[in-house]
User: What shape does this take?
Amino acid sequence: MKPNIYLIILLIAVIFITSCAPKPVGEVPAAETEQIKEQEQPQAAEEPKPAENLVAQEPAQEATEQQPANSAVPCNLAPLQRQFSNTPYYTGPLFDAHIHLPGLPEIKKLSCTFDKEKVKGAIGFYWSSQQSQSLEKTLTEAESIKTDSSGKIRLFLMPKPYSLKTLEDIEATQKGLFTGYGEMAFYSRGNPSQSYYPQSPDEQQFLDLYVLAGKNNFVVMIHPDQGQESAIENVLQKNPNVKFYFHGEEIESAIMGLMDKYTNVYYSIDATLSRLPRSGDALHVSRTEEEYVSRVKQNFNAMLNGAVNDWKTKIEKHPDRFTWGTDRGGESWHYGEEVSRLFEELSRAFIGQLDPAVQEKFAYKNAEKLLQQR
Assistant: This one.
């Protein structure tokens, strides 16, 4: 019996030793391999995040949740790609000293356009197209325009709908909202709601308005009709303390003589920069954005050369009293991206042809000076 006992003991010992031996890597079961890998993973991902990372991420998440589905596309500030190689070329700031403002919902888009064009400010002519709109609502809209443009748009009130007493009350209760009166149109182009035609700029009701403008340190912007040069001189003689700001082809031939005689005369060169040969300016003879773009592209060099011939000598003779502007307004497509881009390129090419000492004055400094209070 003893030999059998010894045999059993020997067998048990062999089995025990074999089970304790290390297993080759290739023989480790898959489940055990995955468990080992999980145990060997670094624990850094489970550590608390730094406090500044948490603060930075939480507002972003909140903004995403609150952002409306139809939120505006961010302003694209890609630099202008020139289509014409005319040199020299002005690349500095601009000040649009003559623009008719679009509807209130479009102001933010217009501000984006200004940023793209490096337009540091603007004179915006404001009036309500709704004749039945209350004065309170009109003033609220004007305040919104000023706020939404971050103060970049300096508002001129078109005074036609209001009595002198109402204008006095507006300035008394809305200090700083408006900077001037205008555009005061004395010509007729089919829109009597905006024009004083056929009245003359020196009639008593307007002389009273200019006196009020002088009290308020307001600029007065006038677009005269043909044959009103003597009336304009009468206005200038009676109001030497008021800055008068003109534009329009009707007074164009007389503007140098007026500047020679009166130091309070300023003039905006705007849409006339895109004047077509033997025709009007492209902005106002075109009916669509596509038509405008086609006209400018086909006549770019002729427009540029014509503007230089018409205005370079005049600007350089009175370098402190001519301003740049666009005269956009009246049609929604006037604010179109392609319209703005082409007019900007034409304007910068024109400014580049001026005496370097004059370029910044015409581009923006004269407009800023015009708006300074006496």
